Amino acid sequence: MSETILIAGASVRGAVDSAVRGDWRPVAADLFNDQDLHQQCQAYRIADYPEQLLPISQQLPAMPWMYTGGLENHPQLVDQVSQRHQLLGNPGSVLRQACDPFLIQQILTRHDLHFPPIRRDWPEQTTGRWLRKSVHSTGGKGIQWARQPTDEPLRNAPQETLEEIYYQQFVPGLCCSGVFLAEQATGRLMGATRQIIGKRFTRGKPFSYAGSIGPLTLTVEQQATLARIGSVLTGTLGLRGLFGVDFVCQQDKIWVLEINPRFPASAEILDRALGASLVDLHCQACQDNPVPELPPPHDRLQYGKAILYARRPCTITAQCSQAWLAQTSQIVSPATNHWFWVADVPAAGTVVPTGSPIISIMTRGKRIRQVQRQLIQAARQVRRECNAW
User: Fold this and answer.
1) Which of 26, 62, 160, 181 has its CA 20 to 30 A from that of 18?
2) How many Cα atoms within 13 Å fall on the side-chain side of residue 178?
3) How far apart (Å, rounded) are the C-alpha atoms in residues 122 and 115?
């Protein structure tokens, strides 16, 4: 019999998809409450995000629970929800360490692993380009070029104090994300993806996360380095279950940028490519159950996801919402004769501010460049069909 699980976060549709494939019965709570989420499970909207999660969770019967992106920045709330529901994931004490960039830098450099220089004050006397970031940034929101000293809060980032701002030296290269499974003090590399960041067709901010393509084919050296990163972080921080590592790849040199100590957004790509439920593997690992080795990807295809953002404020019409909902199953684009499908479909009447996500598109192909082209073409078609944004 399927077991019920509460999945909460800013956006949980991808994790819910995976849970359903793993024969779990999810109950969802997130900020967007999209239509395709309602098609799969009982879902609640966290209108006052994230504070309203606690009263929502207290109304539900006790069950296991896990969280997705955003809640790692609220360790106290995670611990409060966990007083009623069995936590499958990292508690607040682990989150505070995993989200501390200065601690992560110390851990990795101590093991001869690469992490860019960081500092709390303005890097006036240093060379190279620098980024201005917040320790509470999620999905790249609010990251800016560090052009001049300022006391202004980061745009599009949570409200913060100056103590939460830090500067990280920019590292050029291929932006990627690794997905790991922490089990019994070992961090197993599940795979890696290329991140879509700053691409014009998504209309996202320059550093906002706008999707993933993968799985990446890694060299032996890259695999070894990532495996060591996963094991070092798991053993030092006491991580449990799935977690992500954002990194820049410079040939065989891996530069770690951030740790995401929860179900990462790119896991949805590997979930499809591996033909497995990573949420189920996450739950098994968090319950100290043996997790089997996965076979190689079943179809050797590349999978891609792109998040389309609003370039201006808009209200989703009933026509748009219904048309997109019909495309949540795979359809063939008449323009390209390639498969694509959509996800995270907003309800009619949803008001989307400038710079906020509207919908996700997905596709698959034999090569990364093919997937990139198909995502761009699908984005054009979706925008053209519903010219509301």
Assistant:
1) 62
2) 29
3) 18
Q: What is the CATH number of domain 95-113+173-299?
A: 3.30.470.20
CB count within 10 Å of CB 362 equals 23
Chain Cα centroid distance, residue 264: 4
44 forms beta bridges with 29
At residue 372, the pLDDT reads 96
Q: Is the dihedral of CA 312, 315, 318, 321 positive or negative?
A: positive
**Domain 301-389 - what CATH class?**
alpha beta
User: Would you state the CATH architecture of domain 3-87?
Assistant: 3-Layer(aba) Sandwich (3.40)
pLDDT score for 178: 98
Q: Where are the domains of the chain?
A: 3-87, 95-113+173-299, 117-169, 301-389
pTM: 0.93
* pLDDT of the residue at 329: 76
Residue ranges of alpha helices (H) inside the chain are: 13-21, 35-38, 53-58, 75-81, 92-98, 101-110, 220-237, 267-274, 278-286, 318-326, 368-385
Confidence at residue 164, expressed as pLDDT on a 0 to 100 scale:
85
CA distance 213 to 323: 25
> Other C-beta atoms within 10 Å of 27: how many?
23
